[in-house]
Design a protein that fits this description.
The structure holds two protein chains of two kinds.
Chain A: E1 4-13, E2 16-26, E3 31-35, H1 42-49, E4 57-62, H2 67-76, E5 78-81, H3 93-103, H4 108-121, H5 137-148, E6 155-159, H6 167-182, E7 186-191, H7 194-200, E8 203-208, E9 211-216, H8 218-225, E10 229-234, H9 240-243, E11 253-256, E12 261-265, H10 268-277, E13 284-289, H11 292-300
Parallel strand pairs in A: 3-7, 3-8, 5-6, 6-7
Antiparallel strand pairs in A: 1-2, 1-4, 8-9, 10-12, 10-13, 11-12
Helix pairs in contact in A: 3-4, 3-5, 8-11
Chain B: H1 3-49, H2 52-55, H3 61-92, H4 95-99, H5 106-134, H6 147-167, H7 172-188, H8 203-206, H9 210-223, H10 231-257
The chains are: A alpha/beta, B mainly alpha.
Chain lengths: 306, 259
């Protein structure tokens, strides 16, 4: 049986349908992602899986249980890393973990052991007795993850784990999450960063306006919905609009964004040469491989981060 | 609701308090001393020399005032602990969201919070009664029982403000509550003078306020005089406030935290 299974799962807030009859399954040991822009319904889906938000309609089982009936039992076996840090800033790093462990009814000696291990894992051992307040954003995130692991959860759900962090802090965090995955923890991640989804997820669904618009591994999605490479060109202000028709027939698909033109092609350099042959002189030319961002753009006509 | 989960919530409050107790403990000791000195002894000497004893049934003003202040202090403590900390847990530090991601449920959280406030009220009231005794304002050991109505009154306000704070979207409503609710109740619910001194049309209004019922009970216990109505009615009224407010609190917490 899948660890999490949803059929026609729906979440409504009054007239607004945040999650619109979605189906998905998460297998044990898998790292599963919800990718989509803000407001796509990712957080609502996560909150239903976390048994903190009632299902409006449809079927959902988590760890073989019904969240409406066995909420506390499900939460006992989950770890949750919310989008906002919800740490008690007046307390020390270790005290935050202690309080949390007690909520799970763990005995104090056991919690003390785990605090030592988890602070080591989160690279916060030296800050053990410091107050949380002055910690950096990356440290607070790592502490939040350590806190979510105090009950040794089978399933860890992370809502936008690296939003607001600098690149270095993000990489440290990804490394820690990768280690957890190696230890067999099932991860469910929401993100609106395609690089994060590519780094972390074995399989993901792309959500838009409450619906799942595509599903697969990052590689499958790129193969199915994009080309091998993308040629990105910038033209001087005002020029782009005038030359679009001269790009006809150069690529499998052409996407004109406000600030650049994307040509979807299997051979970026070749296409760039063709563009030059037609006498066009972009200000900048970049050839890159396709990403999930391109998949999203193809499926919804919009970029992920507006 | 599960008993262990409620206990865990109380425990968490105690751990936070271990970090923040200094300020509140100092005011727990000083504010009764200041109030009893200024109002009880200072103002009291004027009242006792004038028409006071006749209207106070032969009591000194200090003796009349002290049990009222005890309960009014409990009211303020309860209302304070039920307001901004709840707003913080839901909106500012969001620690309630973290708590509710564990096996702890909404009811455990509300009851545990009120349980902790109850412990704090007990401490504050015991200290107050000890200071009253030092001022000679407690007639007998039975007077120490005045702690019970003080705690009940504090809890009635804590439960009501907890529900209200969870209902609000921002804290301006809390300032309004204190300015136009708690302060007038503090002044006009029989703490400083009997409500029979109020204009006739205001008297029934004062008797609706839980504070008055607590003051009646505390004064009766501290001074060995009868209550206005049956003590059972006064106690029952406070209990109804606590229970109904707690139930409303469950709903408000669910609305904000279990959407």
């Amino acid at each position: 049986m899948p660890l999490v299974e949803a059929r026609s799962l729906t979440k409504k807030f009054g007239d607004l349908t945040a999650v619109d009859a979605v189906d998905f399954e998460v297998a044990r040991g898998e790292s599963f992602g919800f990718l989509g822009p803000n407001g796509a319904g990712k957080t609502s889906a996560m909150r239903m899986i976390g048994a903190v938000s009632p299902v409006s309609d449809g079927y959902l089982q988590v760890l073989g249980m019904d969240p409406a009936v066995d909420g506390p039992e499900i939460r006992r076996r989950l770890g949750v890393v919310p989008q906002d840090d919800t740490l008690d800033t007046e307390l020390s790093v270790a005290e935050n973990l202690l309080i949390y462990g007690r909520y799970f009814d763990l005995p104090r000696p056991l919690i003390r052991e785990r605090i030592t291990e988890l602070l080591d894992f989160a690279q916060l051992s030296e800050r053990r007795d410091d107050k949380v307040e002055p910690l950096s954003g990356g440290m607070k995130r790592r502490l939040t993850i350590a806190r979510a692991l105090i009950n040794q959860p089978e399933l860890l759900i992370l809502d936008e784990p690296t939003t607001g962090l600098d690149p270095q802090a993000r990489h440290v965090l990804w490394d820690r999450l990768y280690r957890l995955k190696q230890q067999g923890v099932t991860l469910i991640v929401t993100t609106h960063y395609m690089d994060e989804a590519e780094q972390l997820c074995d399989r993901l669904v792309i959500m838009d306006k409450g619906k799942i618009v595509a599903e697969g591994s990052p590689r499958q999605l790129i193969e199915a919905y994009s080309t091998r490479e993308v040629l990105e060109m910038r033209f001087p202000v005002g020029v782009q609009e005038t030359i679009l028709d001269r790009l006809d027939g150069l690529a499998k698909r052409t996407e004109a964004l406000p600030d650049r033109v994307l040509l979807y092609t299997d051979n970026g350099d070749g296409t760039a040469a063709e563009v030059a042959k037609r006498g066009l002189q972009p200000e900048s030319v970049v050839v890159r491989r396709s990403t999930l961002e391109d998949v999203f753009l193809r499926l919804t006509g919009r970029t992920l981060v507006d | 609701m599960a008993i262990p989960a409620v206990v865990r919530v109380v425990e968490a409050h105690a751990l936070v308090y271990r970090r923040t107790w200094r300020g509140s403990v100092i005011s727990t000791f000083f504010s009764p001393v200041l109030y009893l000195l200024a109002m009880g002894v200072g103002l009291g000497s004027l009242v006792d020399a004038g028409a006071g004893p006749a209207d106070l049934g032969g009591l000194s003003y200090l003796a009349f005032l002290a049990p009222g202040l005890l309960v009014a202090t409990a009211m303020q403590t309860g209302a304070g602990d039920g307001s901004w900390p709840v707003m913080a847990g839901i909106k500012w530090t969001k620690t309630y969201h973290a708590t509710l991601a564990t096996p702890v449920g909404v009811r455990d959280l509300v009851v545990g919070h009120l349980g902790w406030v109850g412990l704090r009220l007990t401490f504050v009231s015991v200290v107050f009664v000890a200071i009253m005794a030092a001022f000679g304002a407690v007639e007998s050991w039975a007077g120490a029982m005045a702690v019970v109505p003080a705690v009940l009154t504090g809890l009635a306000f804590a439960a009501a403000t907890t529900a209200y704070a969870a209902y609000l979207d921002n804290d301006t409503g809390l300032s309004t509550l204190f300015r136009f609710g708690i302060v007038p109740m503090f002044l006009f619910s029989g703490t400083f003078f009997p409500i029979s001194q109020l204009p006739d049309w205001l008297e029934p209004l004062a008797s609706v306020v839980p504070l008055w019922h607590g003051v009646e009970l505390a004064r009766s216990l501290a001074l060995g005089i009868p209550t206005t109505w049956s003590p059972l009615i006064h106690v029952g009224y406070l209990l109804v406030w606590i229970v109904v407010s707690t139930l409303v609190g469950f709903r408000m917490f669910s609305r904000k935290l279990r959407q």
